[in-house]
Amino acid sequence: MKLTLEIWRQAGPTHEGAFETVDVPDAVPQMSILELLDHVNNRLIEQNLEPYMFASDCREGICGTCGLMVNGRPHGPGQNTPACQQRLVGYNDGDVIKLEPMRSAAFPVIKDMVVDRSALDRVMEKGGYVSINAGTAPDADTLHQNHETAEFALDHAACIGCGACVAACPNGAAHLFTGAKLVHLSLMPLGKEERGKRARHMVDELETNFGHCSLYGECADVCPAGIPLTAVSAINKERARAAFRGKDD
């Protein structure tokens, strides 16, 4: 299968970037988007040319490192699927595929398709933790939580922080990411001590670095973890709860 790739090349954060055209005459449908880039880079390395930079790690769809834009959509055409799991089976011979970094003001380009997503880390630093007493682990029976609540919390804990929600949002909002973390930690027994403080600090950091929610729901459509759009409501819910209860909770 022959494909034409338009790949973003940018030497660094202070440099101008541009798309470069690369012809791939021997792509196979079983390749993932990342394997396609590997294939291109192997050829460049053999020719003593600089390969394209892109981020990846586990390539099992669970780490979120592999975020990039494929034809203007985070990760690729497949719904709720990370780039490392997006295969070429949906493309036809002669198709053009445009590959570029996650586009958001909060994600400055480091090089080529590698971006700095530390703005998400800063949100987590403000409240993505729980207080525990160091020492012997408590007996499991002392922490009461029913199965349904635990499963609901884990559904939101599945967020892998890839940043697709931010790149998909025309306002560059990270409400799906932050809301998922707030829902998860608010439901866990060990997370309740910081609940109010967590909401205030995480939402303040969110609004410092990211835009307002667009209300269109593009974020949930591209989320590899399938975080529901209802997670966004936790932003206002947890902030209002914290304001009502005061600074001590």
UniProtKB/TrEMBL annotation:
One of the Pfam families matching this protein, by short name: Fer2_3
Record's keyword terms, sorted: 2Fe-2S, 3Fe-4S, 4Fe-4S, Iron, Iron-sulfur, Metal-binding, Oxidoreductase, Tricarboxylic acid cycle
Domain 4Fe-4S ferredoxin-type, first and last residues per copy: 150-179
Signal sequence extent: none
UniProt-listed NCBIfam families: dhsB (TIGR00384), PRK07570.1 (NF005746)
Family membership: Belongs to the succinate dehydrogenase/fumarate reductase iron-sulfur protein family.
Protein name: Succinate dehydrogenase iron-sulfur subunit
Native organism: Corynebacterium suedekumii
